[in-house]
Amino acid sequence: MQAFYEALLLPDVISEIHKQQRIQLMEIAHEILPAHLSEMELYLLALVNYQSMSISESSRVMGISRQAAHKSARHLEELSFIQVEQSQHNKRDKIIVLTEQGRELYHYMEEAKRRVEAQMAEKIGVENVQKLRESLRSLIV
Predict the structure, then answer these.
(1) Is residue 121 a part of any domain in this protein?
(2) Which of 18, 59, 60, 93 is buried most, with the most CB atoms less than 10 Å from its CB?
(3) HSE-up (13 A, CA, CB side) for residue 89
(4) What is the pTM of this model?
(5) Is residue 101 part of a domain?
(6) How many structural domains does the chain have?
């Protein structure tokens, strides 16, 4: 398997690291979170933590169907992590807003992400993690 990893080009290396980090993050999340949430639900919480947005807008950002975004939002709303409100500008749009419980949950996830990042720093060093973060951010379109 080592030879396979050594032969990977950068896009595949990034994909493999992303896969491994997501698995690790979800394991930590299931240990610390009060409810079982999917990766998409956690992604939706992260997006809405920074800015309230419509369900259709969140589906575009996450690259999923509106139906899948509705399903994630419905589950989060049932758990009282978000509220779905009618848009004042467009009556067809439903805006996702974090509740206080949702903000607390997001902070738990931030801690889980810090733990994953700390594990990376143990392997490659804090300075290299910072350089890696900066380099990869510069590639985001």
Answers:
(1) yes
(2) 59
(3) 3
(4) 0.81
(5) yes
(6) 1
pLDDT tens-place string over residues 88-117: 888 788 899 999 999 999 998 898 899 999
Report residue 117 as tokens.
């990042």
Residue 131 corresponds to which tokens in the numbers above?
């350089």
Q: What's the Cα-to-Cα distance from 76 to each of 5, 81, 106, rounded to whole Å?
A: 37, 5, 12
**Domain contains 12:** no
Q: What range defines the domain where residue 119 resides?
A: 22-139
Neighbours of 49 (CB within 10 A): 16
Q: Do residues 61 and 47 make contact, with C-beta atoms less than 8 angstroms apart? A: yes
CATH of the domain at 55: 1.10.10.10
CA torsion through residues 17, 18, 20, 25, sign: positive
pLDDT in tens, 23-73: 988 888 888 777 788 889 999 999 999 999 999 999 999 999 999 999 999
**Residue 7 falls inside a structural domain:** no
**What ranges in 1-141 are assigned the alpha helix state H?**
2-7, 10-32, 39-50, 55-62, 66-78, 100-124, 126-139
